[in-house]
Fold this protein.
Amino acid sequence: MKWNYHLITQDKSGNKPVIKGGKECVLLGRTILKSTMDEKAGFKSYLFEIRVK
């Protein structure tokens, strides 16, 4: 996954933060390939840990 960007599709549901396992989460949607900047279908999964470099 180090070669892709993932767009955050949603961070709230019904104006409330999404909580999974006691942690605030974001929904990852589309994926952008760093090498070509082409978009493709993504995870559609909630994640609670984001690493930003």
